[in-house]
Amino acid sequence: MKLSIITVCYNSAQHIRLTIESVLAQTHPDIEYIVVDGGSTDNTVGIIKSCEPHFHGRMHWVSEPDKGIYDAMNKGIAQATGEVIGFLNSDDIFFDETITAEVVTLFETDDCDAVYGDLIYQKDGKAIRRWKSNPFQPDDLYRGWMPPHPTLYCKRNLYTQFGTFDSQLHIAADYDMMLRILKTKHIKATYLPKIMIVMNLGGVSNTNLLLKYKEDYIALRKNGFRFPLGIIFLKNIRKIYQFFRATHRELILTNYP
Q1: Is the pTM of this model over 0.85?
Q2: CB contact set of 33 (below 8 Å; sequence gap of 6+)
Q3: Beta-strand (E) ranges in the chain?
Q4: Deepest in the core among 136, 179, 198, 235, taking most CB within 10 A?
Q5: For the stretch 79-112, what's the b/e string if a residue is b when 16 or more beta carbons lie within 10 angstroms of its beta carbon?
Q6: Burial class (CB in 10 A: 0-12, 13-18, 19+), 36
């Protein structure tokens, strides 16, 4: 099964080499890697160019201005030819080298439409927040549950059926997309019960909370969810609990062999 991994970036020279190397380290043999750069002015493009030969034709990249992160993600989806699509942010890494192989195995054995797992936020190499998921139940969406989008892998035909990211949203288009897909009763999402992604703590969705709450509200109303303020409250209560799940035993690898 061919897997398309998309990384969108802008002025990401500080982290993107580790991101790319974590893709290179994956044991799944059929990976198409797509990098969509927003016209970086630092050394991001230089790093991408230096890594490209190691993919032996399996890496495709573009560097040009875009209309934001979700516009860039949609560009990546348009280029993807894999049966399954996932995203790896430019400051994220896979937790270990078998993640994509395990994801593909679940798609093949469980006959599912999407796969997701657990996420660790790190700071200075130490786990700060652990987003532990659970087996998917559609009603959980009404209780503030959602899978961590950086771990979500979807069959490409879901984007054809349900549409791509709403680029009018600046922070919550991933939440909007997941609500749109996962509220549909016939969609089967399978949980991979392990840490899949290590993500550096930060980003606009973790700092501009007022805009985040506003766009979460818009996404919930847009997708027909009643009592959106209650859902947003429960969603944020779940986040608080995630900080207590992380322990200092979960130190994060910062490079790959």
Answers
A1: yes
A2: 4, 5, 7, 20, 23, 55, 58, 59, 60
A3: 3-9, 31-37, 59-63, 84-87, 92-94, 114-123, 126-131, 153-155, 189-200
A4: 198
A5: ebebebbbbbbbbbbbbbbebbebbbebbeeeeb
A6: buried
